[in-house]
Each structure stands twice: as structure tokens, then as C-alpha cells.
Design brief:
The protein is mainly α and about 230 residues long. Helices cover about 75% and strands about 0% of the residues.
Length: about 230
Amino acid sequence: MVAIIALVIGLAVGFGGASLAKKAMPDSGAMMAANQPMASGNMMGGATDSKASDLRNTLSSALTAHVDLASMAMRKGYDGSADFDASAKALDDNSVAISQAIGSVYGDEAGATFLKNWRAHIGFFVDYTTALKKGDKAGQDKAISDLRGYSATSAAFLSQANPNLPESVLEQTFNMHIDQLVAMINAYAAKDYTTSYAKQMEAFDHMNKTAGVLAGAIVKQYPDKF
């Protein structure tokens, strides 16, 4: 929890009033370069800096957990599984925990705003899965459009909050996350389970790398705190 709160420090500059609503790591070199030496070698620029390491590890844990929980909930939602509600609750519990960390720093209103927007992005994945199950191409396209809009809004927000995070690369990063989860559920619907789980693993790895980049940018922005 402490390390998640440390993440929010990196977002402080644009939080009040900003909405958080193809290929990401092709240009990850640009973002990594922007965050040297934090994003290479020992990642945090100080092998003995436990605060920086904790931040990176906590971000990695939270983001990769989101991938696994979202993948599980989308598959169960597609199948209409009896335990879908339980899987959705596990995913939402993760969202609530992050919003509480933000609220503990910026107040309940800020935490509630974050939770509303974060839940909305998860809802767009639900919309896509529902439309896919129904064979509703227009519904699928609408959900993808909503997810793209969320990517653009989030990229602008984070880039404004932290000048070490290039907006264009962030948007590519978020769109890659979308593409991977969409490919995951598409393959599942086609009963290509090998590809479905391979896409989940790609998304997991991608979020792990993203955590390192975000942590490096935050440490670079606030070196006195790490």
C-alpha cells in the first residue's frame, strides 16, 4: 500500500480536474531513454534503494494482477460461468484498493473519481466481451472506440502529471494492453485456447515492463523521495 501511494505522488501535478478515463514497447526505448538511469540496469538507479524497489515491485504486482483478473473475468463472462460474479468482485477489489490509496493522499472525492474512471475502462472490456458473445460487430466496434478514448485520455493525464512520460508512447502502451486483451478473448471465443493464454502472458509481460517504466519516471521526477 505504501508503494502504491508513492505512485500517486508521481500523478499529483494533474489530478484535480483531469479525467483518467500499436504497439507500446516499439517506442519503449524512447521512454526508457527518457528515464535513464532508472529504467535500465538495476531499474531504479540504486540497487540498495528499497523504497524505489518497493515501488517498482508493487506497481508490477498491481498491474500484472489486473491482467490476470481481467482475463479470468472476461472468459467467465463470455461463458456465463456460475462464478463470474466472484471473479468480477476480485477484479473490482483490486480497483477499490488502488482508489483507496489515492483517496488516502488526495481525499475521498479524488479516490471516488479515480474509481469511477477505472471501473469505466473495465466496463468497456465487459461491453466488448458481451458484444462478442452476441456476434454484435457494431457493439464490439463501439467498445473498442471507448477503450481507445480511454487510452488517449489516460496518456494525456499521465504525461501532464509526469514530464518523463511521453504522451504518444503512453497512448501506444495503453492501446497495446487493449489489443492484447481483445486478442485474448477473441481467441478464446474461437476455442483457440493456446493463443488465448499466450496473449494473456504477453499482456502480463507487457504490464510488468510498463511498471518498470512508470516507476523509473516517478523516481526521476521525485528523487528526494526515493
